[in-house]
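Our consortium's second objective concerns turning raw sequence data into structural hypotheses that experimental partners can test. To show how far this objective has progressed, the report includes one record in full. It was chosen at random from the queue rather than selected for favorable results. The single chain below, 269 residues long, was entered without modification.
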Amino acid sequence: MPARVRQQARAVRIGPRSAAALAVVSLIGVAAFGWPLLAAHGSSVAAHGADAPWLFAALLPLLVAVVIASIADTGMDAKAVAMLGMLAAAGAALRPLGAGTAGIEPMFFLMVLSGRVLGPGFGFTLGSLTMFASALLTGGVGPWMPFQMLAMGWVSMGAGLLPGPDRLRGRGELALVAAYGAVSAIAYGTVMNLQGWPYIGGLATNISYDPHGSLATNLARFTTYCLTTSLGWDLPRAALTAVLSLTLGPTVLRALRRATRRASFRPGP
């Protein structure tokens, strides 16, 4: 009995099938986000204007594949899947609290802490499902939604890849997740800028996408675009994520790990 009491919750490991499914999803996401920088010179913006429905159609079965691969690799039971749904619902409920005002989005800290405990495979699925559910809840369904699902999935997946998930605890872990939360909040805004940047009005400005420009030219334009349009939103989001991770992190991490132990996130002997 004492040994059972001392048993620690471990993050969901990522097996070969989970890794393969995540790699496919991420490659599709990189192509979807990065086409303005990766496309040949002269590529038409209009040619990619209807890509979002196709991306969404490809993303949903791939998310299911990630869940199935995680279950097959780790032997998780129905309680673990139910926990995923509960956390996605909680994240979706948190999103309208800030409504994106000045970048205040409290759901980010929960996605980071959940990814830290659940691991990269379930973390990616959790982030994507949370964005999908919150879009339905807030009426935010649009061509940006599949891109938001991918970006938030990467945020949660990255938290699951942070070092020391089974050993690092206390102030060191809080500092790690708070720093990651701040950086990932800014990275999320930057990636989402890349999705909408080619379609901004007035395509003759010095911060808009130039289909005939070189990679260096468009990178400079994109950097200027981010600094002048979204940094004022990204920095408050980063600050709030870090503060919530430091203040609420100990309680949330303990609750998640206790639930993880009870949910049989590892195969039995």
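The partners drew two points from this record. Residues 1-7 have pLDDT under 50 and may be disordered. Residues 97 and 138 are 11 Å apart (CA to CA). Both points have been shared with the crystallography group to help prioritize constructs.
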